[in-house]
């Protein structure tokens, strides 16, 4: 867009000659009255200032009094005119930049890293709209191949083998980028990732080791809800805004282990769904926030390593996804029935699942990792196997979708591997973990931009991975 001033901008820096374009008869008048240069300049200035009246902040004119009082106007210096013109040029350029940036922001879409992150992203955006005090921060984009180790966030955490979501990261109601993890002392710690310090600690939160966390933002009540899962098959629901235990559900399964649990938001009602790992057939149990059991969802095949939720906006349905010993399954929550089984002829643990769904893809893709070292990509709604990528012969656990074409994979060789999905090649290996990598999450950090957090099995360290910073070369004298 060009500037809206009536001067010829190309001549501003060289010559401040004023050609008035608003009066078509002015050029003839100028030829006839070359002797009276002062009169010409005054009239040209009047016409110019009339056109600049809306944008000018220094001199304002009323059109009725212009013709009567134009003789009283002092002819400004060239420097003053030049400043006025440049101010108008800057304002028009700034308006153009704001217009372009607003369009870019409106058209920008973020990839969904996992099902939990999708719900958190939607909730945070709603909270920003409702609360004008919360400012949206532009996050710097990072190419995944430039990710490198920065530091250990903490060394007092504790994680257990085979489990997903050994820690969680979310933006709280107070607009704090919060990390929550457990310690060997069965305490729950919250950590501010922006200020790089501990916020709160719930000491002795459980009687046995804490194995798993999940988070959801209760927008109606303006609070953060967190569930913590214990090795003794107990679940506790916390209002983490007030550090209050709302519900304690004990002995959910009499036999086996409670390995995973998650929140489900259905028609503005929040439920807790649990899964069982045992030799018997698995049963999914659904509770409300007060701990009352709502229903069972029967699972006819194998034990469950993890459980997660996917909400399909087009179909307006909630689906429960379970990772079992021999397959991955999905359930239609609203109709309380099995939806699909995703399986090949193998009996390896299926350890993690991500749903990749956005407005630019017509197919909802489900990405899952397994104990045979293979990443499989399925059509979620048809259970068709779209792609099978062999990573290596050892177990792969946590996975993190960076974008539509890049996937970070946690492996038993203590490495985080970066997979380019289109070419099916490992393009980078991140080393720094002391054991099998269980959990990887992508976060948006105001300081570092897009980055990763990871944790290993039976490891006390949670690590931060950020964009590699280029060192400036010193100039030789």
Strand order of the largest sheet: 1-28-27-26
**Considering DSSP H and I runs of 4 or more, what fraction of the residues is helical?**
10-25%
How large is the count of helical segments? 5
Class from helix and strand fractions = alpha+beta
DSSP strand content: 35-45%
As for the CATH topology of the largest domain, it is: Methylamine Dehydrogenase, Chain H
Model regions low in confidence, pLDDT < 50 over at least 5 residues: 1-24, 54-64, 102-134
CATH class of the largest domain: Mainly Beta
**In angstroms, what separates the terminal alpha carbons?**
44 Å
What's the Cα radius of gyration? 31 Å
CATH architecture of the largest domain: 7 Propeller
Q: What count of domains describes the coordinates? A: 2
Sheet with the most strands?
A: 4 strands, antiparallel
The rough form would be described as globular
Give the beta-strand count: 28
Looking at CATH, the homologous superfamily of the largest domain is YVTN repeat-like/Quinoprotein amine dehydrogenase
**Average pLDDT value?**
76
